[in-house]
Amino acid sequence: PAPEHLDQAVSQFVLHVLPTGLKGLFAAGLMAAAMSTIDSYLLICASNIVYDIYQPLAKNKLNDRSLLLWTRVAMFFATIATILLCLYFSNVERLWIFITAILVCTALVPTIAAYYWPNVKRRAGQITTTVGFILVLIYYAWVDLLGAWDEEEIAYIWRGDLFGFSLTLNQDYGILYILPLVILTFLIAQLTPGGKK
């Protein structure tokens, strides 16, 4: 039978064709690959939160036992956040676009600047990353809460007036609007006197 969703076509076809024993092995292989990937990414996420955000903000240097404890706590909350994101988005493609918007709007500008701009200020990277993350969340919330689902565009669309201009915002194209603001934020933070390089 034809699958209800296109992303289920391969798994449905394989389970329809394989004999009973191999179906179980195929399903176990899919689950093992998924669990391995989830485990690795959650550990990377938790480590980044603890080592790159929490430890620099802590007054005293954390010992190995504290780092392990906080990594486990961060992994728990990252798991909850991941589950909530998966429940919120209707399909993997929409979730992928959201995650890509966050990655590009937070990491792209500071990373490229570090390669090509001599002596990038730490403050510029921190401010750019924070502003990019906040702008993506605001944009997605704005279009989702104030807009409506458009079957033709297959996306949430917000139509309205802003500062006297008639605008149509597609949620999936947020990166095109946010990235120039992120670049401007980086330039202002980098060119403002002061701050460690």
Annotation field: number of helices? 6
Count all strands and give the number: 3
The unreliable regions are none
Content-based structural category: mainly alpha
Average the pLDDT over all residues and give the rounded result: 86
Largest beta sheet: strand ordering: 1-2-3
Main sheet properties:
3 strands, antiparallel
First-residue to last-residue Cα separation? 61 Å
The ordered H/E elements are HHHHHEEEH
Tertiary shape = flat
The level of helicity is over 70%
What value does the Rg take, in angstroms? 21 Å
Report the portion of residues in β strands.
5-15%
Task: Describe the protein.
This protein is mostly helical and 197 residues long. The chain contains 6 helices and 3 strands, in the order αααααβββα. It has a 3-stranded antiparallel β-sheet with strand order 1-2-3, with helices on one face. β2 and β3 form a beta hairpin.
List the helices and strands and how they pair.
Blueprint: H1 9-17, H2 20-57, H3 64-88, H4 92-116, H5 122-146, E1 148-150, E2 155-162, E3 165-170, H6 174-191
Antiparallel strand pairs: 1-2, 2-3
Name the features.
3-stranded antiparallel sheet, 9% strand, mainly alpha, 197 residues
Outline of the structure:
The protein has six helices and three strands, in the order αααααβββα. The chain has 197 residues and is mainly α. A hairpin with a 4-residue loop joins strand 1 and strand 2.
